[in-house]
What does this fold into?
Amino acid sequence: MNRSWTKYHGREVIEQGSYEVTWEDVRIERNAALKRSDWRALKDLTMSQAWKDYRQALRDLPQDYDTANEAADNYPQPPE
It folds into this structure.
């Protein structure tokens, strides 16, 4: 999850920061990411280990991090 924001004046960067997120925000994004990759878990397909690890990392977010911001900053990226 990208929490960063940048404020511009023309092409000049005048301010940067990070949004605060809640556990609900993290769960909504995580559930959407799992849903987007559900087709890889169909019975007639063999899911690669990289995709298994990615999906497990998504499911583990709430238990692996103390704060929602920490979870968002360490949000797993899907394999290529």
